[in-house]
Amino acid sequence: MVILDSQYTDGGRIAAERFVAEEYIIDALGAFDSHRVELVQMLCSGLPLPYDYSGLLCETLFAQLLRLPGPRLCPVAFSALIAHAALLRPAFPKYLAGSVRQLYLRLQFLAPELAGRLADVLAHFITNMNFRWPWDRYRAGLSQPPGGPQRSFLVLVLQHLVRLTAWDHQMLLQETPPDFLALLGQQPTFHGLPSPEPYPPAPKPPTLPSPAAAGDEAMADAQGAAAAADKNGEAAAADGAAAAAAPDAMQQDEQQEAAVNLEQQQEQQEGDQAMQEAGEGQQQQQQLEEAAADPEMVWAGKLLGVMQA
Q: Average pLDDT, stretch 13-27?
């Protein structure tokens, strides 16, 4: 895109040299996208050209900003590059103003999207330059009817300025002529949301205790902590004594349980022996009764007694 006259961009050199320098700038924009500081330093002082290439740099940046269907970088990135270039190269603001002026005169041939990008970058640049801009050169747009390309562009730039600062920003009101501010219309008023209930009263600040009361509270806290420590010590001692007496009590319980088991075993043995003796006595008695009932057995008993005598 050709914006400025060739005498401001070629430096009296051949067209091939301009083409190489322009391609170098475009390649640097794509290669150093994430390193903006190094990029602007290289673009402002790293091009090996024997003349002041501020006009070529400015025209290339605006050409890449207005590239279709979209720029290589976001508009904010171009705003940062242009602002830094204006600080590092003293001749850059002059070519910047000329480029914006030429694009302003060609707005009827630009797509609305391109006019929006240009207005966004210009608003960022104006805020970085303390809102100083030659507004008198753009008064022709004030006479256009609403919806005219130049008038709409001025309105868009002012709207971006308000979004970046505020309606009542002091520098904006001082540096911008009133007839340009009139393009924004009446300042909107903001009313708070209606509330069905009144606002609650503000909370009372907490009352701080006096030094004497604070000292008394500290003493009471210390005494309470000491008493708690004593109780904890007594409880620990009781737990230790109980833990020490626990093995002796367990040993006594085991001895008592063993003695009870031994007595039970002895009683069981005595009961078994008594039952055995009772069974033998019953058997002998039964034999005697049977012998008394049988006469032969009685006679045999008598004969046995005689023979023994």
A: 87
Q: What is the DSSP letter of 187?
A: P
- What CA–CA distance (Å, rounded) separates 99 from 80? 17
Asked if 61 and 83 touch (Cβ cutoff 8 Å), the reply is: no
**Rama region for 67: left / alpha / beta (φ>0; ψ in -120 to 50; rest):** beta
Residues in the chain: 309
Q: Residue with structure tokens 């005494």?
A: 223
Contact 125, 171 (CB under 8 A): no
pTM listed for this prediction: 0.59
Closest Cα partner for 29 from 102, 68, 80, 69?
80
Distance CA 259, CA 252 (A): 11
| Residue 165 in tokens | 């600062």
Contact 87, 101 (CB under 8 A): no
Which range in 133-147, 204-218, 251-265 is most confidently predicted, on average pLDDT? 133-147
Give the list of residues 6+ apart from residue 100 with CB closer than 8 angstroms, or none: 118, 122
pLDDT of residue 17: 84
